[in-house]
Design a protein that fits this description.
Pfam families: HTH_31
Organism: Sphingomonas naphthae
Protein name: Helix-turn-helix transcriptional regulator
Keywords: Plasmid
CATH topology of the largest domain: 434 Repressor (Amino-terminal Domain)
Number of helices: 8
CATH superfamily of the largest domain: lambda repressor-like DNA-binding domains
Low-confidence stretches: none
Number of strands: 0
Mean pLDDT: 85
Number of domains: 2
Largest sheet: none
CATH class of the largest domain: Mainly Alpha
Length: about 140
């Protein structure tokens, strides 16, 4: 089983994806190459301002950078489309009731967030797949 990545490994991944050397990234961040090396090696953690700048300049998700478990940069999704999320949540809730499935509190929100993150919209194919999945879950009780 592979080990989870570290903050330093994720900083290094950002630098490599950007095609930058340590000197170039350090200069862009306003720090010494020695500081960058110490962050990449997890000797010390970078200042919060550096984390913000990395996320902003390289369009990576702050959650991935700080808490990620792999070294594939997750892109920042931008501002949330709350009306779309609410439509997905309402669709899931209606389908849940339709198939007679009882879920623990918060599970519909998890499903809605998953669909939201995947970019699936409330089209007929998504409804059909979700209904089949909820039916399968309801029969497992």
């Amino acid at each position: 089983m592979s080990q989870p990545s570290t903050l330093g490994a994720r900083i290094k991944a950002i630098r490599r994806v950007a095609g930058m050397g340590q000197d170039a990234l350090a200069q862009a961040l306003g720090f010494s190459t020695r500081s960058l090396i110490s962050w990449e090696r997890d000797v010390v953690e970078p200042p919060l301002g550096v984390v913000r700048q990395l996320c902003r300049d390289h369009e990576v998700d702050v959650g991935w950078l700080v808490f990620g478990t792999d070294t594939t940069p997750a892109r920042h999704h931008g501002p949330a489309d709350w009306p779309r999320y609410e439509r997905l949540l309402a669709m899931i809730e209606a389908l849940r009731v339709d198939v007679g499935l009882r879920l623990k509190p918060g599970r519909c929100q998890v499903l809605a967030r998953s669909l939201y993150d995947e970019g699936d919209d409330a089209d007929a194919d998504t409804r059909r797949r979700l209904r089949h999945m909820l039916l399968a879950l309801s029969q497992g009780d």
